[in-house]
């Protein structure tokens, strides 16, 4: 978000000291996948983790890249700004802003600690109510956001 002068209304800074907890996401293929689905699933994972897609997710969505090369490219002033369809300058990050963001995210990741392991995690998770996925979007829209809600 930008103010009337087009400057960002917020800053992004890595923690000054080591700490924090790593989170993240996982792409996986079930061992029970049907053989005819394995190749398309692997192609999707390869595509989503490619430098091109990781750079676009970073520049357009602010997602932390999973590839060191993407951070290095943006920190060096390379990479591309988001090729937005709407032409909005309110949210589009400039290359210098993306370089700063890449640097701060990378520092945060390098300073973070792995999540502590707990022998009680399975018990804790098992005590939570089951989840029910539901897709957000217009009726008949196969796209949209997948929302996970806890049943109460």
Kindly, what is the distance between the CA atoms of the first and last residues, rounded to a whole number of angstroms? 36 Å
CA-based shape: globular
Share in β-strands: 5-15%
Strand order of the largest sheet: 1-2
**Unreliable runs, pLDDT <50, ≥5 residues?**
135-152
pLDDT averaged over residues: 79
The major sheet is characterized as: 2 strands, antiparallel
What is the overall number of helices?
5
Q: What's the helical proportion of residues? A: 25-40%
Q: How are helices and strands ordered from N to C?
A: HHHHHEE
Radius of gyration: 19 Å
Count every beta strand, where a strand is a DSSP E run of 2 or more residues: 2
Report what the structure shows.
37% of the residues lie in helices and 8% in strands. The protein contains five helices and two strands; from the N terminus they run αααααββ. A hairpin with an 8-residue loop joins strand 1 and strand 2. Helix 3 (68-75) crosses helix 4 (95-111). The radius of gyration is 19 Å and the shape is globular.
């Amino acid at each position: 978000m930008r103010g009337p002068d087009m400057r960002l209304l917020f800053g992004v800074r890595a923690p000054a000291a080591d700490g924090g907890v790593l989170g993240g996401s996982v792409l996986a293929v079930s061992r029970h996948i049907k053989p005819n689905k394995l190749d398309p699933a692997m192609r999707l994972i390869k595509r989503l983790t490619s430098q091109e897609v990781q750079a676009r997710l970073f520049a357009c969505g602010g997602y932390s890249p999973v590839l060191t090369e993407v951070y290095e490219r943006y920190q060096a002033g390379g990479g591309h700004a988001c090729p937005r369809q709407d032409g909005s300058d309110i949210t589009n990050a400039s290359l210098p802003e993306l370089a700063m963001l890449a640097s701060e995210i990378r520092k945060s990741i390098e300073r973070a600690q792995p999540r502590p392991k707990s022998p009680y995690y399975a018990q804790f998770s098992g005590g939570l109510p089951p989840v029910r996925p539901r897709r957000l979007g217009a009726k008949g829209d196969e796209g949209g956001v997948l929302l996970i809600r806890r049943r109460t």
